[in-house]
Amino acid sequence: MGDKVTTDTASANEKTGYRPEITHAGLSPTHPVTAVDEYNRPREVEVPGESPLTLYVDEREIVTLMTIGAHPEALALGYLRNQRFVEDIRQIKSVRVDHQTESVQVVTHEGIEGWDDKLKRRTVTTGCGQGTVFSCTLDNLYAIRLADFKVRQSLIYRLLENIADQNEIYRRSGAVHGCALCEAANSLMYTEDVGRHNAADAISGYMWLDNISGAGKIFYTTGRLTSEIVMKTALMGISVLLSRSGVTHMGLELAQELGVTMIARARGKHFMVYHGADNIIFDAQPAPRETAAERK
Predict the structure, then answer these.
(1) Are 261 and 239 in contact (CB under 8 A)?
(2) DSSP character at residue 4
(3) What predicted TM-score, i.e. pTM, was given to this entire model?
(4) Tens digit of pLDDT for each residue in 245-274?
(5) Which CATH class is domain 13-141?
């Protein structure tokens, strides 16, 4: 169901099965608190965590991410991958998280050259908690080539149904975004964080660790489709992007330039295809909705 996606940075670990040494230091994503409701009654509820995680590569400080801390190793790997700071996972020796120092230490085998050039220009994005895109990411972006990938309307509906109950943290506490890597109508993995860019990076990190290609996959997010999310989707080699929220104009322009099929405002039987309608097979069209004039 779709041709193989080819990019300028094919994942070498898909052939080697290499995994760096990593800790497993995920935190509990929520914390119990007491709040008072509209009837002046105390209620025990949960709120998501939010703490800084400073990323170091070979002892060089790269960035501090605000995160719930549920997937810190995958988040660090996905951030490095999506920013194109590290091209090949085999360059990474270990990933170690230390919550006492609020840090994640990534150690490479032979070092990474050109850090001053990689970090010299950055753009602060509209991601929740603010994301950052560096110049080296943009330099690599337009070398990506995404293959066309046909998606049936009926599959979109089944996927939305299957994914509806996976937002466990949101249902417990609210205040988070979720992202999923999907194949056909199934979610292969679902992550939630205080920012959708973090959730997307964690997905990318797990894909890197588990040798998962973006070919033939759909990327789902609960957040709006900004240029940053379109960029991360393309960098993961995924050509179909689905959201229950809306799109921004820059996000749409970038999707058009990169060839990303953009489906948004997807709830129930409704969705809008902002780009790539030729890649949708409309095989399950719902009954026409009555107009305001027809209801009179």
Answers:
(1) yes
(2) P
(3) 0.87
(4) 999 999 999 999 999 999 999 999 999 999
(5) alpha beta
